[in-house]
UniProtKB/TrEMBL annotation, chains A, B:
Protein name: Magnesium transporter MgtE
Organism: Flammeovirga agarivorans
Cellular compartment(s): Cell membrane; Membrane
Sequence similarity: Belongs to the SLC41A transporter family.
Presence of the UniProt keyword Methyltransferase in the record: no
One Gene Ontology CC term in the entry: plasma membrane
Lineage of the species this protein comes from: Bacteria, Pseudomonadati, Bacteroidota, Cytophagia, Cytophagales
Length: 465, 465
């Protein structure tokens, strides 16, 4: 019963390890879920880790190994002799096995392969051939198949023989001689049916499937949309080649979400081979690379603002008050634009809107941003009146008038920034890109330019003659 | 077979509706997954919608109704007479039923209740009593229970009787006389076992469960962590009161991700009753409210920058070149700070780091931001040299020297901004808050202040005497 927290259990296990109580430890560990054993192995030091790992059966080792971090996997791979390791490897889930295999160096791969039985070997090589971000890259070949002509009793017998090594068999897929997918039956169907019923009377023929080359994000979204436990993956001949499980779909959705959030902040997502690396595990230089690209691009794009400012240097020289409220204009525009971009990117990603809705979105953003303009201009007016009450202005200008022009610029800036923020993701999507690349820093930089143009156009027209 | 896209199928259905071919339509519809029927109903106009809805059986209606948008649900509720509606209502999934019921006005609730049978009525009232963001708020009471003393045959017979209305019975929960949860068996266990085996020999007693008042985000994370199809929910007496399904957990994770992303951009998440509203459905005023709070707070906080600028107005007056590079310093600081905040917030949310790792995180961010500083300062130096080559400087100052001081300020600004961005989420989490509230606009505003202080301190010390 694990309602109590896993930290208490870790303390108990740690105590047993420190005292070398391996038998007692073994008894405790066998009651824990795999993920908690993994967490324990990740925490203890390396020598103990190997000892603890050796306490498990071959099958448990395979399950645990599949969930370990890349570093620990690699450490165990190098510590065990190839023959012992091959036994663990053969018992792993096919998708996790292929993932691990793909991360090995070529010479390590060839050192391992001779120890692996032929069936597993060809499975690993087949699965390793798919792109990591495709259905093939995340599917498993551990599924149960039955035939249309079987009775429920025959189907159940086949599942009993096929399944012990297969964790997930809540669906059994019905295929023909050529492995072409005809439909599926659920375990619930089989349990509720009579033993002499025929599979062909139970089969669900209206099913959803995805092509093996489909993008993994779409696969995950299908599983989410249709509330599936697993999605069958077929090749171009409609033959069943694998399944993607609901928990792997959840991992994909979380990973894609991290990417979207990072892109939004101008951070490059992790490279493919580092996808599972955590914040602390990723080396400083890789963190640096993830961030520097946008920062440098923006610094270069920022030259445009620099040029505009340079052009208006004289104006600034005459009225220093203009310089004082430049940051307010830039910040507010950047914030409003980023907000609009965020909601539009998210709505696109959740399928709530498409590029065809551009007119509706524009109309909505105009109304929202006009409301925002009214509030923010009012605050800006108060701000200018309070902060600059003692400023010396050129002849003929009152502070109220200057404040009014600054607020007008701010109002226009909020509306244009919101439209730019909402519009850019739509344009990127229209041309087939990922809307999330329209990073908030990019929007900030762009609306800096428009903001300065609005500000100085109004200022030179109404304040400086 | 629905490998082909759902738009084609929609076109066919639309044609049949327009021609009033109800029989043919009925035949086509019954092959479609519920979610696609829902999508069709959402698209057709309201009169046809009710006609199409009426084509389905009571059970199908209940399933479809549960997935419809709030607006359509409400429309149907008002169109059908209370007696017909009550039949649909009774057949709904218990969690969806309670959600719908909770959104009705009190007088609508009391108008409906008399038509509902007693068992459903008390179930609805019980489920409606839980907080929407707790386990109780998202759980369903549709689960199968068996008893320890049963044989597999008896258990299967009980599931057959209990289950037809229950979509999800991949686990059967083992409870005692008092409904206290003892463990579970999977359908796979039951299928693989012999019919005369005892449940007590198959039961998994090491299971994970959550309290009915547990936060729904934690519940979803448990389901994700332990790769469960459903998580049993227990009350303080350890009695089984419901289960949360894997697909509902996925919905929670997606919703929480939207909230995190919005918070990061200074947008208030939707209010509870609007949680499922899409971008286009949410009224302009609610969009406005979501965004205005932060924008106004930031505008007010921005007064601090205003005050600092006001303080250094004389310095700006003497050297206008300082005003030219102020935006660069502010923007770069804001971007670097937001990046650091994003990765730390995400790492906290994924459980990759905890507040105890603050020293490691700080050390990492110092190194990353120093690398970034070197790059960005180099670019800034080039920028100043190119843009300000003809600027008239006060006596005794060379452009190279001024550029150096500006770059030094930028370098210090990038490091402090990164540390502020990484540190704030940790501090918020330490005090029990949600780190995602440390919105990027807030960081932008804060590092504006630190940036100006750094900039003008260096400038007054080294450039203006």
């Amino acid at each position: 019963m694990t309602v109590t927290n896993s930290e208490q259990r870790y303390e108990i296990v740690k105590g047993l390890i420190d005292q070398g109580e391996w038998d007692a430890l073994s008894g405790v560990l066998e009651k824990l879920p795999t993920i908690e054993i993994v967490e324990i192995l990740e925490k203890v030091d390396e020598d103990h880790m190997v000892t603890v790992f050796s306490l498990f059966s071959k099958k448990e080792k395979a399950q645990i190994f599949g969930e370990l971090s890349h570093d620990l996997q690699y450490f165990i791979f190098n510590t065990l002799d190839k023959r012992s390791f091959s036994k663990v490897f053969e018992d792993m889930r096919s998708d996790e096995r292929a993932d691990f295999y793909q991360r090995l160096e070529v010479d390590e791969q060839s050192a391992l392969l001779p120890y692996i039985n032929k069936k597993v070997r060809s499975n690993v090589i087949e699965l390793s051939g798919y792109e990591a971000d495709s259905a093939g890259g995340i599917m498993t070949t551990d599924f149960a198949t039955v035939r249309n002509w079987m009775t429920v009793r025959e189907a159940v017998d086949k599942i009993k023989v096929d399944s012990p090594g297969k964790k997930m068999i809540y669906y059994a897929y019905v295929v023909d001689n050529e492995k072409v997918l005809l439909g599926f039956v659920t375990l619930k169907d089989l349990i509720i049916a009579d033993l002499q019923d025929k599979i062909e009377d139970l089969i669900h023929v209206d099913f959803v499937a995805a092509d093996v080359h489909e993008d993994r994000e779409n696969v995950a979204k299908m599983i989410e949309k249709y509330n599936l436990l697993a999605l069958p993956i077929i090749n171009s001949d409609r033959k069943l080649v694998g399944i993607v499980r609901h928990d792997d779909a959840m991992d994909v959705i979380v990973a894609e979400q991290t990417e979207d959030m990072e892109r939004l902040m101008g951070i490059q997502p992790n490279a493919e081979e580092d996808e599972d690396e955590s914040y602390l595990d990723l080396p400083v230089v890789k963190h640096f690379k993830k961030r520097v690209i946008w920062l440098v691009s923006l610094a270069i794009m920022g030259m445009i603002s620099g040029l505009i400012l340079h052009h208006f240097e004289e104006a600034l020289d005459k009225m220093v008050i203009l310089a004082l409220y430049m940051p307010m204009l830039a910040d507010t525009g950047g914030n409003a634009g980023s907000q609009a971009a965020t909601v539009v990117i998210r709505a696109l990603s959740l399928g709530e809107v498409t590029t065809k809705d551009w007119a509706k979105i524009t109309f909505k953003e105009v109304r929202i941003s006009m409301l925002l303009s009214i509030c923010l201009s009012a605050i800006a007016y108060i701000k200018v009146s309070l902060l600059s009450f003692d400023t010396v202005l050129p002849d003929g200008l009152s502070l109220a008038y200057v404040a009014f022009i600054i607020c007008l610029a701010l109002a226009i800036q909020v509306v244009t920034s919101s439209l730019i923020g909402a519009g850019l993701p739509l344009i990127v999507r229209k041309f087939g890109g990922d809307p999330a690349v329209v990073a908030s820093p990019a929007i900030t930089t762009i609306v800096d330019v428009t903001g300065l143009l609005i500000y100085f156009s109004l200022a030179t027209t109404f304040l400086l003659h």
